[in-house]
Amino acid sequence: MEEAELLTQIYQFSLVLARIVGFFAVAPIFGSEVLPRRLRVGLAVLIVFVLFPTLSWEGIELPEQLLLVGYQLLIELFIGLLVGFLLQLTFITVQLAGIFIDRKMGFMMASVMDPLHGIQAPLIGQFKNVLATLLFLSINAHHYQLRLLADSFKVVQVTNFQSSPEFLRAVLRIIGDLFPLAFQIALPIMAIVFIVDLAFGLVARTVPQMNVFMLGLPTKVFVGLVVLGFILPNYLSFMQNLFMERFEELYQILNLMIERG
């Protein structure tokens, strides 16, 4: 094998690896801090060896300018990071909903360690996040992630990325849905706890001798947990639909990345 051909293949291999490494850095499950970095890097290299022979490399040659090589690698890394981050936004939405709920129930001072990200997380938010993770695995969404990653090379071939106003609007729309979706998840419990707060406020006005604070906090916790138990089936159904919709949206975004003649 000639030296020029070898360098070209190394360049092509690096392009694929950059996108996969970017995806694995932030994607749900695969980007978890629980998985050792060596395992994630090894899995990324293994996937490159699997995908590399199936990709079309027609017209993709090693650029003469080193700066252009670095630019192409950054673009591929950006694509992987973007797709992984938009998937991760679903779990960030759950965590944000948990913050809303904890604030209303009085759990803001209580937090637990999130093993997936290695950070402190709100109590109810972590509970919902664990349920969402188990649901994600139970519906084989981690397999859909790998399929999405493989299909991304067919839809957006390496060195063929092109931004557009439609692409930017689609990405910003998904990011902008973060707060509305989190509020939608937290709304049932927040509404019930608000009614409890309102009831205790009326009691405090009519019976000033009653220690409303000592009674209100445990009551809000109890009512919130009861409502949480009742709405769990609806929550799981909502999250499953949200996962599937997110994958469909990501395929649409990939189609907006391709170069148009």
What would your notes on this structure say?
- With 261 residues, the chain is mostly helical.
- Helices cover 75% and strands 3% of the residues.
- It has one domain (3-257).
- The longest helix is centred in the last third of the chain and has 46 residues, at 212-257.
- The mean pLDDT is 83.
Helix percentage = over 70%
How are strands sequenced across the largest beta sheet? 1-2
Tally of contiguous helical segments: 8
Mean pLDDT: 83
Cα-to-Cα separation, first versus last residue: 35 Å
Sheet-strand content, in percent, reads under 5%
Number of domains: 1
Regions with pLDDT < 50 over 5+ consecutive residues? Answer: none
- Secondary-structure element series: HHHEEHHHHH
The structure class reads mainly alpha
Largest sheet: 2 strands, antiparallel
For the secondary structure, the number of strands is 2
Measured on Cα atoms, how large is the radius of gyration?
24 Å
Shape: elongated
